[in-house]
Specification:
about 450 residues; alpha/beta; six-stranded antiparallel sheet; globular
Length: about 450
C-alpha cells in the first residue's frame, strides 16, 4: 500500500508513522506547505524507535496524491494563528471559544472547507481509486463537505470515541477483554449508549450503578456520577462544553491563554529547537507530545474539580490506531471489523438525511464503512444532533458559496452562541482578522 499524508509537517504525524511499523505500507509520502516543519517531522521519523516505511516528500499536491491507495488529510488552514483568532473572537463577545465547538468551530470550518473541497477534487482527478481518511477538524463538517465530491470514499476519524470506550471498559473491569458497544452522534457530540462484555453482560448498567468506578475515569470526573446516571449514557468529553457551558466558559476565560495560544507557543518552540538540533528531534518531539497530552482539556478538568489525567491516557495513540485499523480492514477486506467512524448516515438515524455525516459504529470491508443500526435516540440527544447538523450544513453552504447570510445562520443557530447580534459581531471580528496582515 502507498499512503500520502497531507499536512505531513503536522505534530501528530509521528504517531501515525509509528503505527505503520507492521509493514503493510510500503511508501509514505508527506506533503506540507511549510518546508521547515516538514523537514523537522522527517527528522523525527528517522529517529523514531521501531522504524517504519520509506518516506518521501512532495512539494506539489498532485505529485503527492498520484499513485496513493490511501490519503490522510490532516491539514490546518491558517495554522495555529488561525486557531487563536477563532478562539479569541467568540471570547471577546462573552461566548465560548474552542477549536471545534461553538463559534470557534464554525469559524474554523468556514476557513477550512474550501481548501478541503479543493483537495477532494484533486484526489478525484489524480487518484480516483484512493480512500481519503479525514483527520482535519472540525471533522464532521469537513468530512461532509469532502463527501460532496468523493462520496463514501472519504471517511472521517476521531480518537475521542475510542478513548471513551477504552476508559469505560477499563473502569467496568472488562479491559483488556473484548467488548461490544453502541455509540452514536456527530463528531464531538456523541454518546456511548451500550457496553457489553464478551458474554453479553451489560457493563454500562453496572458501571452507572457504581459511583466509585464511574468517577475513576475521565468522563466520569468531567460529568459527575449524578449527571451520567440522569442521562443513562456516557457522553463524549466534548459535551462538557454543552452540559456545563457556564462552568466551561468561566474556566476558559480564567485560564488567561487559550488552548490555541498554548499550542502555538509550544509548537513554535519545538520546531525552532528541533531545526537547530535535528539530532534531538525525536526526544524534543516526545517531550512536547507528553506535555500536550498532560494539558489536554485542562480548563474542563479545572471546571470539574481539578484533576490530572491517568497515565494510561497519556500514551497519545488513538487517531493512528483507528486509521491503521481502517486501512487494514479496507485493504484486506476484513469483514466484521467494527470501528467508530464519521460516515454518511444512511438509515441509522431516520430523522437525519441519508447523506448527513454522523459518527457511529461501522462495519468495514473492501467497499468501505457501513453504519450499523442503533436504538432510537432520545429527544434530548436527537435535538442536539439536529441543531448541530443544521449548523454544520450552514457552515458548508457559507464556505462554498461565500454566503454571509449562511455564515450568520451557522453561528446564530449554535446552542453555545446566545444571540444573533453576538453572532453578527463574531462574524465581523473574524472578517477583520482575516483582512489583517497577521490574519
Amino acid at each position: 500500500m502507498r499512503l500520502t499524508i497531507l499536512g505531513g509537517g503536522g505534530f501528530r504525524v509521528p504517531l501515525v508513522y509509528g503505527a505503520l511499523a507492521g509493514g503493510e505500507v510500503e511508501e509514505l509520502t508527506l506533503h506540507d506547505s511549510d518546508p521547515v516543519r516538514l523537514g523537522v517531522i522527517r527528522a523525527v521519523l528517522e529517529q523514531l524507535p521501531g522504524g517504519g516505511p520509506r518516506v518521501r516528500t512532495a512539494e506539489d499536491l498532485d505529485e503527492a496524491l498520484r499513485g496513493a491507495d490511501f490519503v490522510f488529510s490532516a491539514i490546518r488552514v491558517g495554522g495555529t494563528a488561525g486557531r487563536v483568532a477563532d478562539e479569541r473572537a467568540p471570547l471577546a463577545e462573552g461566548v465560548l471559544g474552542q477549536e471545534t465547538v461553538g463559534a470557534g468551530g464554525v469559524l474554523y470550518g468556514l476557513r477550512t472547507v474550501p481548501v478541503a473541497v479543493e483537495i477532494a477534487e484533486r484526489v478525484r482527478a489524480v487518484a480516483p481509486g484512493a480512500w481519503v481518511i479525514n483527520f482535519t477538524n472540525p471533522a464532521g463538517t469537513v468530512t461532509e463537505a469532502m463527501a460532496g465530491v468523493l462520496g463514501e470514499r472519504v471517511i472521517g476519524i476521531c480518537d475521542s470515541p475510542v478513548g471513551l470506550v477504552r476508559r469505560a471498559a477499563r473502569a467496568a473491569g472488562a479491559a483488556p477483554g473484548p467488548v461490544s458497544y453502541e455509540y452514536v452522534g456527530l463528531n464531538h457530540l456523541g454518546w456511548l449508549r451500550a457496553l457489553r462484555g464478551a458474554d453479553g453482560t451489560d457493563l454500562l448498567e453496572a458501571l452507572l450503578a457504581d459511583r466509585a468506578a464511574l468517577e475513576s475515569f475521565e468522563e466520569g470526573r468531567l460529568f459527575g456520577a449524578d449527571w451520567l446516571r440522569a442521562l443513562g449514557s456516557l457522553p463524549n468529553e466534548y459535551l462538557h462544553y454543552y452540559y456545563f457551558r457556564r462552568e466551561a466558559l468561566a474556566a476558559v476565560r480564567a485560564a488567561g491563554a487559550t488552548r490555541g495560544e498554548f499550542l502555538r507557543e509550544q509548537q513554535e518552540a519545538f520546531f525552532a529547537a528541533a531545526a537547530r538540533e535535528p539530532s534531538r528531534a525525536y526526544a524534543l518531539w516526545e517531550a512536547t507530545r507528553r506535555e500536550r497530552e498532560e494539558t489536554y482539556m485542562a480548563e474542563s478538568r479545572e471546571a470539574s474539580g481539578g484533576w490530572e489525567r491517568d497515565e494510561e491516557d497519556l500514551a497519545g495513540g488513538g487517531y493512528d490506531q483507528v486509521a491503521l485499523a481502517l486501512m487494514r480492514a479496507i485493504a484486506g477486506d476484513a469483514r466484521g471489523t467494527r470501528l467508530i467512524l464519521n460516515v454518511p448516515n444512511g438509515t441509522t438515524v431516520p430523522q437525519l438525511p441519508p447523506d448527513a455525516i454522523i459518527e457511529t459504529v461501522c462495519e468495514v470491508d473492501a467497499h468501505g464503512a457501513h453504519p450499523l443500526p442503533c436504538a432510537p435516540l432520545g429527544e434530548a440527544e436527537l435535538g442536539l444532533m439536529l441543531q448541530l447538523k443544521a449548523v454544520e450544513r450552514a457552515t458548508i453552504e457559507a464556505a462554498l458559496f461565500k454566503d454571509r447570510t449562511a455564515a450568520l445562520r451557522a453561528l446564530a443557530l449554535h446552542p453555545l452562541v446566545d444571540s444573533p447580534a453576538v453572532a453578527g459581531r463574531i462574524l465581523a471580528r473574524a472578517a477583520r482578522n482575516a483582512d489583517s496582515p497577521e490574519g
